[in-house]
Write a structure and sequence with these properties.
heterodimer; A: 164 residues; alpha/beta; six-stranded mixed β-sheet; 29% helix; globular; B: 513 residues; five-stranded antiparallel β-sheet; five-stranded mixed β-sheet; 14 helices; 17 strands; 44% helix; elongated
Chain lengths: 164, 513
């Protein structure tokens, strides 16, 4: 039987969740900003190293403007992983990150949370890493949906992790 | 009413109802919205429904779960819907409400709101970037100014020293060229600094009472000479009745007129240049003057007129005509800073006319004329005066030594840094210290504070100190005075100025004792 896992993209509006979603699903990118209302869902079959197949169902949900608490709870129901995305060029998208992570950890104890800093193409990687470390801002991966940097690798690693 | 009815229609959702088996097979569907086949798995209909796989473990019987604003599509259409699941023991009921139109309208509002927030942020960042760039440019120009002025001071100083030695005619001519070019370089630096100050808003306008007649006389004197050299005629025409003393920023007014006159002479090879001044209006203590500068030069093509006041603009590519293309840009910026107006009209091959309107104030009650620069004399003494020069650059040390020694009244000692300076003043009595402000490790300000505060012996703590630097800004002199210095002199300094300031401080100290 094919495995199926639900993965939810979370984060502030305008951080590039839909761009990551489109880059991962269809390998497409557009400079144009289009707000996401509600949720769009797509799935992609990923071949796992042990020859199993994973049907990763990704929920690209509308961005919040203040805290992840504003997100509709039903969207998060039955998730196998959360991907919290922030914009490396906008501090206000990660200023409340630690509080949001705390909220998700407390309320969805079994769901792993991955943190992505996106729009890497617009910043100096070394400088931003230093800045995030100084500000105590966590990240699992820094990506650029525009250039596709680290996007596919991130989802492949996530697929392995949630099927272990 | 019609609109209301339309609204009702648009907000009245179309509905699709489905019944699913316990193993998520579509048992019944009315296919009102999407064409999904009976007896197939709901998971094949849309990936959204795959969430049902995880539901059954975490939800209770008869539970109703709502999912608003879900983007759903089948092979032929795509809609934004609210979906309600009613989970029972033996089946699941799914109701899909089509709210596409409502959500699309909301989407437009959200799009505008988010776009405006993102745009504001982008503008903020762009503004920050531009400010940083501007700050970098200004500090770069200030530092460049310092780095260039220091060797330039030496060049100008040594030329003056050189000119006083016995030179052949050819050597004299070469020295004259070096001097002229060095003064020209100095003027370029001044222009760059001025423009940078104006653009960064750091240029302060200082209102002072000045003699308008003398300002015009000054132009008359210097440009008559220039005109003579170029075999041109220079005329001034001042309307009678303009106040002799005006209140305004004399330095900047001079700079504006001087830049435009220089420009007029640069591009006029025959005929004349004329400066006329007339009153636009006068009310209570305010007067607006119109300065007209006309030349019979090469003129400017009509299509080039809009670019005349832009930086680094030079329409004439003749390299014989010197200039950076900053003069008119500075003039325009200064005119605007003084709340005036500047206009240009021109006819190619016939000449150009600049009209500048500038506002001034004047005193209704006649005030006493400004005092003249006071003259000072070195006190009578058998021995020469001993000066300590604190400077880490050998070339500047040498230049100051040359100037002072050639004057004949001074002995000069040199200290490379603060530590050496302190040793010198503890060992020997000095009449004056010339202190470079930018010494390495301990700077001139700190060294001065140490001299003023650390010694009970008045022969040390009261030594007159004159600071000097190639960095020039309005607050530097104040900073020198606050640190305990008696005066400040900017590089490149003229021999005459340096000797005047030294004489002044030594004679003031002598008079005080």
């Amino acid at each position: 039987m094919k495995l199926s896992k639900k993965v939810v993209l979370l984060g502030h509006f305008g951080v590039g969740k839909t761009s990551l979603f489109r880059r991962f699903m269809d390998n497409e990118f557009s400079e144009e900003y289009k707000v996401t209302l509600g949720v769009q869902i797509k799935k992609k079959v990923i071949q796992l190293p042990d020859d199993r197949e994973l049907s990763m169902v990704v929920w690209d949900i509308e961005g919040h403007s203040d805290s992840v608490k504003d997100t509709r709870k039903s969207y998060l129901l039955g998730s196998h992983a959360f991907i919290y995305v922030y914009d490396l060029t906008r501090e206000e998208t990660y200023i409340n990150l630690n509080k949001d992570i705390e909220y998700l950890t407390e309320n969805y104890t079994k769901t792993p949370i991955k943190v992505l800093g996106n729009k890497l193409d617009l910043v100096n990687e070394k400088e931003i890493k230093n800045h995030l470390t100084e500000q105590n801002i966590p990240y699992n991966c820094l990506t650029s949906a525009k250039t596709n940097k680290n996007v596919q690798d991130f989802f492949s690693d996530l697929a392995k992790e949630i099927t272990e | 009413m019609a609109t209301h009815q339309n609204d009702q229609v648009s907000f009245n959702p179309q509905v699709q109802i489905m019944h699913l088996s316990i193993d998520d097979i579509i048992l019944e569907t009315d296919n009102n919205l999407f064409n999904w086949q009976k007896n197939t798995s709901i998971f094949d209909a849309h990936p959204f429904f795959e969430l049902l796989k995880g539901f059954k473990d975490i939800t209770k019987d008869q539970e109703i779960i709502n999912f608003p604003c879900i983007h759903l599509e089948d092979a032929s259409n795509s809609k934004i819907c609210d979906v309600t699941f009613t989970l029972k023991k033996d089946e699941t009921r799914v109701v899909i409400f089509d709210y596409t139109q409502k959500y699309k309208e909301l989407n437009q509002i959200a799009q505008k709101k988010n776009e405006s927030i993102l745009l504001a942020k982008e503008l903020e960042l762009r503004n920050k970037y531009l400010l940083e760039k501007e700050e970098f440019k200004n500090s770069f120009i200030t530092n460049l100014n310092h780095e260039v002025r220091t060797p330039l001071t030496s060049i100008l100083g040594f030329i003056e020293v050189l000119e006083k030695t016995k030179l052949t005619f050819e050597q004299e001519e070469l020295a004259r060229i070096i001097k002229r070019e060095s003064h020209y370089l100095n003027a370029i630096i001044d222009d760059m600094i001025d423009l940078s100050k104006i653009e960064s808003g750091k240029l302060k306008i200082v209102d002072e009472r000045f003699s308008f007649n003398k300002l015009i006389e000054g132009f008359n004197e210097s440009y008559t000479q220039v005109a003579k050299e170029k075999q041109l005629v220079f005329e001034t025409d001042v309307e009678p009745g303009i106040q002799e003393f005006l209140i305004g920023d004399r330095t900047r007014v001079y700079q504006i007129l001087n830049n435009i006159l220089t420009n007029a002479f640069k591009f006029t090879e025959e005929g004349n240049v004329k400066l006329s001044v007339s009153k636009n209006y006068q009310r209570t203590n305010k007067v607006s003057l119109n300065f007209k500068i006309e030349d019979t030069g090469i003129g400017i093509l009509e299509e080039n007129i809009p670019y005349v006041f832009e930086r680094f603009t030079r329409f004439n590519r003749d390299q014989q005509v010197p200039g950076t293309g900053l003069g008119l840009a500075i003039a325009k910026n200064l005119v605007e800073l003084l709340h005036g107006e500047i206009k240009v009209t021109s006819t190619p091959e016939k000449g150009t006319t600049f009209n500048i309107k500038l506002p001034f104030k004047f005193e209704v009650v006649k005030a006493a004329p400004k005092r003249k620069k006071k003259k000072y004399k070195l006190p009578e003494r058998k021995n020469k005066f001993r000066i300590l020069v604190v400077e880490d650059k050998e070339v500047t040390q040498y230049l100051i030594m040359k100037i002072l020694i050639s004057h004949g009244s001074f002995f000069v000692d040199v200290a490379f840094n603060s530590e050496e300076a302190i040793k010198c003043i503890e060992r020997r009595q000095y009449d004056l210290i010339l202190m470079d402000l930018t010494l390495s490790k301990v700077d001139g300000f700190q060294t001065t504070r140490m001299i003023r505060n650390n010694y009970g012996d008045k022969f040390i703590s009261d030594i007159p100190i004159i600071g000097f630097s190639g960095k020039i800004n309005d607050s530097l002199r104040d900073k020198c005075i606050r640190s305990g210095m008696d005066d400040f002199i900017a590089k490149p300094f003229e021999q005459e100025d340096l000797i005047y300031k030294i004489t002044k401080e030594i004679s003031k100290k002598e008079a005080a004792h």
